Amino acid sequence: MITKFFTKVSVRFNPFGKEAKSARLFLSAIPPAQRLSGTSIQNELLTGGSVKTPIVKVTFKDKTEMEVDPSNLTFKELGNYFDRYSRKLSLKESIESQ
To answer: Name one GO cellular component term (predicted).
Structure first.
């Protein structure tokens, strides 16, 4: 998963729900060095009676926000969803640096 372009990550999930595995794997895929270099990470644990929906929300360097419900996707699908936009930013960055 390409996390280089993340500036803010917000994850909300029920630790006992079906979305927990995808959300936890997503959080663990963010390298520790990136966490120290300025990527803001927020997580919120939901209780069984909570009315809030589980969500994974990422803000990229160009201020674009993308969000998805982790209960409908596997970790690999979550990674692919955010990687599509990261690849666009990577291509744009490589074009501008030439």
So the answer is: mitochondrial large ribosomal subunit
